[in-house]
Amino acid sequence: MELISKNLSAVNSVINNSLNVNRRQKKSAKLIAVSKTKPRDLIEKALEAGQRLFGENRVQEAQEKWVDLKKLYPDIQLHLIGPLQTNKVSAAVGLFDVIQTIDRVKLAKAVARHMDQSGRRPQCFVQVNTGKELQKAGILPEETDEFIQFCKFQLNLPIEGLMCIPPHEDEPSLHFGLLREIALRNNISELSMGMSADYKIAIQFGATYVRIGTAIFGSRTL
Hints:
9 helices
């Protein structure tokens, strides 16, 4: 537990220091511990250290780990941060508190339908492919405004935020700045951006959630 607790403290300290430097930041950034591929014992150590926000990439993996843990720790907030297939929507709506990867009309309609059927309404974020990468999920920046309006007013989805993953080779600030501008003109308050390598920069551009895995749990193992 000591190493996980120490890592969490270090990351939270950096977040707080970054906020102190950026006095224009009106909203503090919250730490999402990315627990994808991590075994239950490491997750429990993070929970024992007080961490309550976690991110998972795959619905099935999350079900195996989090159904019981959410009963033990009812204040957990679980975020889906990986691509969502339409055949997994029912399970995702039932398990996750925030779905960060709404990125196409078919998926948005499926999420809205299952929310209506279940009565459960997790927060939704639109994932934006700011780098226009063919291999990466996310709606294109020039299509985002129309998509947000469709989700909010045609489907009544609770769109609360935007999410992006900048290309590895690019300067991340360009992508964080773009996401912030899209959020501002659409009156969206939550920004999920920044990972272990660039979360300090993301905070300077207004991130309200940062997604940190390696800096907390160590290098990912498959």
